[in-house]
What does this fold into?
Amino acid sequence: MVFSTPIFMFYFLVITLFVYYLVPRKLRNLVLLCASLWFYYWGEQEYVAIMFLSTFIDFTHGWLVERCKKNGNDKGARMAVASSIFFNLALLFFFKYWDFIAASLQSVGLTFMPVLGIHLPIGISFYTFQTMSYTIDVYRGDTRAQRNIINFGTFVTLFPQLIAGPIIKYKDLGDQIDEHTCNADKFASGVQIFMVGLGKKLLIANNVGMLWDSYKAMALSDLTVAGSWLGVLAFTFQIYFDFSGYSDMAVGLGRMLGFEFLPNFNYPYISKSITEFWRRWHISLSTWFREYLYIPLGGNRCSKPRWMFNLLVVWAATGIWHGASWNYLLWGLYFFVLLMLEKFFLLKVLDKAPALVGHIYTMFFVLVSWAIFALEDFSHLTGYLKVMFGLGGVPLVNDNLGYYFTSYLPILAMAALASTPLGVTVYRKLPQWAARCLCTVLVVAGLVICTAYLVDGTYNPFLYFRF
It folds into this structure.
């Protein structure tokens, strides 16, 4: 079950909210746990058992870590943390990477690992990272171990962010899990944020996604230089509005239930460098890798070669986290190279250059990165990149380009505008009464339009099934 479906919005969510606020406060986490397990079971069925197993393992490991620490048994605590990490990574490896590695080995004649045809559980990369960070934080003393398995299960399975993030750390949510309240203003703001996310997904991401699908499906011989860039531009908008839309919906749903989640995106396409881009894009993932991989490896408090190695490991992990395919690893290493260049000299140049230069530079390399990200087949990827850079006598334009450009120009212009904080800036300058009236009108109109899209639309992809 995903958020952008009628069954979620008009059945699951309505029933869940009704029961949640009907029962006494002390039973609300139990309601959330049951609802979240049903939400996951709807899409994964037997894989819901993984949620039970993951919850039980990390709940008991967190308790064991804290007990060992209190008894002065640091070795036992470290062993418990290592056991938890091993379990979570083994779970992730088996379901996400076993078949990928097996197929890669078989392609070079090594057959000792069979391809099992394993179905990837939706959201496994998100919830394994969340539970893995829990025991680490208990060991570090950043949070106390949760004694109530219902409350801990609520944290693990919380449906607003279960399948597409943001990645929530227990130390940021633990107190809210134990005690969360919601008033009318908070609930209303949650509805507003949810509708913003739903509009991003249905009205922008899905529409520009159809343009990308058209170019992705074209034979390389039918592509042009300008057309290939137009296609990648469409995917650039699609992945941003799809992913940030789901993150906004998660934040909005959290507020409706009394929780506060940190924002996951901060207008990344206005960045003036790749470094800034990654401070604004998928913030929860960047923060997770910094806290639980980069800093434990030594961060930048080490020799320059070691520091470069630390960054290499982080960006290789960032790439492969996104999917079990070589193009994702290449995508991560691509950003590693760019960030190294910026840290050594490019940032100094960009700081002295006009802001427009930084924007153009950043978006150029971001667009190229999304071509690498979107095309898993290496032969198609290399061919598409050759077309983008005009290699092999590829024409600049053709008749198809004019058709696609004029047909999608309004939605592309809307996407470009919505990628900036201009709308929010104007809204915040309005008088309070005008802002409230406008917000009400937009929420109602958005609900009507989005419902029409949900009922009549057949194109509603879920980009994060592989995560």
Remarks:
- The first helix runs from residue 6 to 22.
